[in-house]
Structures are given as structure tokens and as C-alpha cells.
């Protein structure tokens, strides 16, 4: 996920939140995850979410490209 900022030429911002951070704990509670997860948002709209070890980089990548209106093989 961290390479997405460069790959998409600044169209996205990647933020990783430590699992003990209050914001991370709130997300775990909100999404009813066991311990952690992945959320991709476009403004207030959630584009992709996956819990715990179900987060799939490929699926997240596809969802993000669709939200941005980019073809999957765009580089």
C-alpha cells in the first residue's frame, strides 16, 4: 500500500496508524474487527474495507483505481 502514492502520482495519500493509537482502536470498534484492518476512503465515502487478515492488496488496488476512474493496468 505504501507504494500507491508514487504509483498514482500523488492522487492518493497513504496513512498507516499504529494499532494502539486511539484512532485505530475506534476503527476496530466501528467496523467490528478483531484487531486491525484496512480502510480506503474518498472523502467521507468508504471505497474499500477489510478486516484483520482478510485485507487483500489486489482487491484494494482495484477498488482504488475504480474510485479514481483509472483503468486497472494504468501506470
The counted number of beta strands is 2
**Overall residue-averaged pLDDT value:** 86
Structural class estimated from helices and strands: alpha+beta
Rg result: 13 Å
Largest sheet: 2 strands, antiparallel
Q: Kindly give the count of domains.
A: 1
**Percent range of helical residues:** 25-40%
Distance between the termini: 15 Å
> Which spans of ≥5 residues are poorly predicted at pLDDT below 50?
none
Order of SSEs, N→C?
HHEEH
Commentary on this structure:
The structure is a single chain. The protein is an alpha+beta fold and 75 residues long. It has one domain (4-68). It is built from 3 helices and 2 strands, in the order ααββα. It has helices at 4-7, 22-30, 57-68; strands spanning 37-42, 45-51. The protein has a two-stranded antiparallel sheet with strand order 1-2. A hairpin with a 2-residue loop joins strand 1 (37-42) and strand 2 (45-51). The protein is globular and about 35 Å long. The relative contact order is 0.16. The model has no long low-confidence stretch (mean pLDDT 86).
Write the layout of secondary structure elements.
Elements: H1 4-7, H2 22-30, E1 37-42, E2 45-51, H3 57-68
Antiparallel strand pairs: 1-2
Protein traits:
75 residues; alpha+beta; two-stranded antiparallel ribbon; 2 strands; globular
Structure summary:
The protein is built from 3 helices and 2 strands; from the N terminus they run ααββα. It is of the alpha+beta class and 75 residues long. It has one domain (4-68).
Amino acid at each position: 500500500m505504501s507504494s500507491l502514492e508514487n504509483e498514482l502520482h500523488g492522487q492518493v495519500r497513504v496513512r498507516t496508524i499504529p494499532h494502539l493509537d486511539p484512532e485505530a482502536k475506534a476503527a476496530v470498534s466501528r467496523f467490528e474487527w478483531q484487531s486491525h484492518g484496512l480502510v480506503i476512503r474518498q472523502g467521507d465515502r468508504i471505497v474499500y474495507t477489510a478486516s484483520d487478515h482478510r485485507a487483500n492488496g489486489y482487491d484494494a488496488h482495484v477498488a482504488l483505481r475504480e474510485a479514481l476512474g483509472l483503468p486497472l493496468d494504468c501506470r
